[in-house]
# Entry
Amino acid sequence: MEFPMTQLQVRAIEKARRELQRAKNELNVHRISETRYRGIPTISSIVSNDNAADSTSVTLIYRGQTYQK
# Structure
């Protein structure tokens, strides 16, 4: 004999499903935003800037080559 679920149990399951769907959507957005060109990340936050203290000098990476500007 099975017992029917209570309202509290139904709400908990629905909330868990919504949270799982939200996490899937966030992961999908992150994967889309992390664009790579020939295996090299193109997001500026991933590319390190070694000269952060010197605002006139910027380290750029293009196709795996490092440039100072």
The CA atoms of residues 46 and 64 lie 13 Å apart. The chain has a mean pLDDT of 78.
